[in-house]
Amino acid sequence: MCGIVGFTNRKIQAAPVLLEGLSRLEYRGYDSAGIAVRDQDKDTVVVRAKGRLKILEEKTNSGLSVPGTCGIGHTRWATHGEPSETNAHPHVTEDMNVVGVHNGIIENFSELKDKLEKNGYTFYSQTDTEVAVKLVDYYYKKYQGGPIDALAKTMVRVRGSYALAIMFKDYPGEIYVARKDSPMIVGLGEDEAYVASDVPAILKYTRTVYYVENLEMARLEPGKATFYDLNGDEVKKDTVQIEWDAESAEKGGFEHFMMKEIHEQPVAIRDTMNSVLTPDGHIDLSSTGLTEEQIRNFKNVTIVACGSAWHVGMASQYVFEDLVRMPVRVELASEFRYRNPILGEGDLVIIISQSGETADSLAALREAKDLGATTLGIVNVVGSSIAREADHVFYTLAGPEIAVATTKAYSAQLIAMDILAMEFAYLRGKMDEKKLLCMTAEMRTLPDKIQQLIEDKERIQWFASKFANAQDVFFIGRGLDYAICLEGSLKMKEISYIHSEAYAAGELKHGTISLIEDGILVIGVMTQNDLYEKTLSNMVEVKSRGAYLAGITNYGHYEIEDTVNFNVYIPKTDPHFSATLAVIPLQLTGYYLAVARGLDVDKPRNLAKSVTVE
Ligand code: F6R
Fold it and tell me: Could you give phi then psi for residue 515, rounded to 5 degrees?
């Protein structure tokens, strides 16, 4: 995810401090970086570079070639526009009146861009940030109320999430910040002030910080920070002392990146859905380049992916076929590429990949294109190979994932696929407008429901601690629940190294049930009401052979407590969305088992985050 650092003082050169701060944010992932530094009243100098921070350091002679005691810096993880020097922050107005960096996503940026274009502004980048910077400039010049007034007016117009750090030409030595739903802290030192998106960026210099609250602004001067609310009234607040060490600061106070990323899921799916849901509850896929006509005319859908992304495909198959009533195949990329697939015009091939670099998925994409199919990438990393080569791209906005075991990218992929299915169903006349609006409204409630499930994590920790020595675990479910079991089982084996298998509950009797013996843990996922009783019967069968049962089902099925030894209730939702909720306790179970076994949760043995070889 993008990172912000800002620094102002009267003596020390700002650029080396900014570069040092940005280097502390490298772990978060980025694809370009930049700094803007101002030497007293002189013009601000901006240096940007695509790629590693090292390139920016080389370009600026480790910051020494950019003199000045006040500046802002940024590491960018692309969301709007490919990773490039032009799209890298800081962004500026033509006259350098306003220079700014931004984390987050401005949802209504194209509407704001139109407004600014009508007022004579032109744009050099594809970013939403350039729009935000120029909007601040517009209000600053139009109303002449000063930086805080211009920022407040911008905040009222902008929809989305943001942490903004801005320098104004008329205010040398000062940095202005504003925030909504994107973290931001202000730090103080002797005659120094800092701003950062994350604690590690400034921990080397100060531990005395203020947390900038939602919809708050601040003015930073050397040794001083003043806070304002949206009305421009001053807000009094106290400093906080940061006690964390640098490593725990990187993890935002969580013990592992995986746990941090589990907690980031509400934001990941909210950002992903907000990128294509319109305020009136419709879906706008124009950013993917897919036209309504194309969507109406596809004959078949083939989903190709690896690992957890393939599990997303498995779940989506149920949703797609049920809602759209068109045939969907799901293929493992490593198999698909070698089995001479039958594809051609009229076929849509969807490649799901967090990294966008998985070798088998990339090869499958090329194969599908060669055969004449239309290709759509569901990709998290902007500018990755799959994103560049696919005919169309739907970006998941999960931000960088650091833990090897995917959690938030998986959830964002599920949401993206649900949205695709809903829009296909609507445009192909299989879903009326009322149903569409009802489903998008329900979808918007999912982040809060996920949050609710995460908050109950201590119960899962207790449950997992009982099975730290388990040898084998089975996951069973039917329909969409089976697809969720596949992911739950993979999460468990990849990080806790406990052998586990996911079985379609009805298949148990055809062989696997012979493995059930006293004390074996069987986790049943039963969120599909029409299949609930059938899977419950399968649970009873394994219980009578000695299994210890854990059940995941919807609130309301309280009688399950008579059958299972441990249960988790899932908030009620549309059954097509239940995978998004049911996977949370499964991720937590895998996580807590690995912790209980003292394993390296974030870097499991033999695994790589991006599998760029066959
Ligand atoms: C498991 C996991 C992997 C990936 C798979 C595909 O937790 O992360 O199974 O899902 O390697 O990777 P991407 O999505 O990058 O193509």
Answer: -85, -10
CATH class, 3-248 region: alpha beta
Where in the chain are all domains bearing CATH 3.40.50.10490?
251-444, 455-599
Confirm if 176 and 217 have CB atoms less than 8 A apart: yes
| 306 among known catalytic residues | no
Task: Locate 481 and state its tokens.
Answer: 């629940």
| Cβ 524 under 6 angstroms from ligand 1 | no
Nearest protein CA to atom 9 of ligand 1, as residue = 307
483-519 confidence digits (pLDDT tens): 999 999 999 999 999 999 999 999 988 988 889 999 9
Superfamily of domain 455-599: Glucose-6-phosphate isomerase like protein; domain 1 (3.40.50.10490)
The CATH class of the 251-444 domain is alpha beta
Mutation probe of ligand 1 site: the residue of 611, 612, 613, 614 with most atoms within 8 A of C-beta: 611
Specify the pairing of strand 328-332 against strand 374-379.
Answer: unpaired
pLDDT (mean) for 306-327: 97
Q: What is the mean pLDDT of residues 416-423?
A: 98
Distance CA 353, CA 325 (A): 25
The long-range contacts involving 460-463, CB below 8 angstroms and separated by at least 24 positions, are 460/568, 460/585, 460/588, 460/589, 460/592, 461/588, 461/592, 463/550, 463/566, 463/589, 463/592
pLDDT digits (tens, 9 = 90+) for 426-460: 999 999 999 999 999 999 999 999 999 999 999 99
Residue 2 appears among annotated catalytic residues: yes
Q: Encoding tokens for residue 538?
A: 């399968």
Q: What is the mean pLDDT of residues 261-272?
A: 96
Question: How is residue 555 written in tokens?
Answer: 């609130």
What one-character-per-residue DSSP string does 416-475 give?
HHHHHHHHHHHHTTSS-HHHHHHHHHHHTTHHHHHHHHHHTHHHHHHHHHTTTT-SEEEE
Q: How far apart are alpha carbons 174 and 591 in whole angstroms?
A: 44
pTM given for the model: 0.85
- What's the CA-to-centroid distance between 306 and ligand 1, angstroms? 6
Cα 136 to Cα 139: distance, rounded to the nearest angstrom: 5
Q: Is the pLDDT of residue 1 over 70?
A: no
> Is the CB–ligand 1 distance for residue 553 below 6 Å?
no
Residues of the chain with CATH 3.60.20.10: 3-248
572 sits in the region (left: phi over 0; alpha: psi -120 to 50; else beta) called beta
Does ligand 1 have an atom closer than 6 angstroms to the CB of 334?
no
Residue nearest to atom 10 of ligand 1 (CA): 308
- Check whether 560 has a pLDDT greater than 90: yes
Are the C-beta atoms of 520 and 474 separated by less than 8 Å?
yes
